[in-house]
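=== Discrete structure encoding ===
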Amino acid sequence: MAASTPRAELVIDLAAFRRNVAVLAGLADRTGAATMAVVKADGYGHGAVDMARAALTAGATWLGACSLAEALVLREAGITARVLSWLDLPGEDFAAGVAADVDISVASPRMLRTVAEAARAVGGRARIHLKIDTGLSRNGCQPADWPALVAEAADTPDVQVVAIWSHLACADEIGHPSISLQAERFDLAYRQALAAGLRPLRHLANSAALITRPDLHFDLVRTGIATYGLNPVHVPLDLKPVMTFRAGVALTKRLPAGESVSYGLTWTTPRDTTIALVTAGYADGVPRSLSGRMEVLVAGRLLPVVGRVCMDQIMVDCGDLDVREGAEVVLFGPGDRGEPTARDWADKTGTIDYEIVTGMHRPRLRRTYVGVPELVET
């Protein structure tokens, strides 16, 4: 590990990301659907602007952002592709979104009027996607209120209804009865929109439904976690995780048998051994709950982390292995070198890999991008 390498960093493989997008866009293309690459939460911790640009070169034609603020970051970076923003507070400056040609999700008459007023203020016409709650019971218009919403939207000259959409609750559970129930409710909502005089696009499928339910692709699919190489369903698909988390060995020391390590002295050397001090801790995204329950890749070997995870560092039991100070330590990655994966961390901590990678958005972690186009073999 070079001396100039940061103490802890994320290595983001843009070539793997583009390939993942191409694979997923290929699935969508079979059914005639366009692909929206979701880059919310700073690109799931990978970097929104870089991921957006890479996605657009690999087959995506739309981008998804949670908030208007996230969408405007993409616009400020010079990205002109269609961007959908879907979760904002009532006091948000929607005029800025309309002026920047951002598509805005609308789930209530109040929101519709707010966006229409913003459009009038800038002398434009807002592009909106009407969201129907088909059973997730999160954001979206209740079915009983939907006919009134689509009728009002059809009669509002300051908005253009581009699409209707919804989100699936259990798409990652193949065969779950709620999937088909939500699809039926979505179809009814679409027919009600048509009856109101609208001619919208439809989008319902997330990553899991893109892979397992081609009948729900409709006009547009929203690819989220799968574009980052994390497969949400147990269906074989040639995806590669994009993020590698690595750090360095700051110090090695030889400890005799019977010495204890780290806060609380919860682990004691059973023999003479070499301990490597690694420069990443829970402030850098290493869950403290993995204390004594994780391994890292050092010098091509999986070695145990011992003692409690600290704010800035972890300790690795290297036994008699000759580990150099400054050596690279891989905490998680794609797994192709035998290193742990984000899924491994998630399984051990009782969460999902989404939380692991988005949780890596931390001030001390620098991102390094590899696989940039000019360096990737054609």
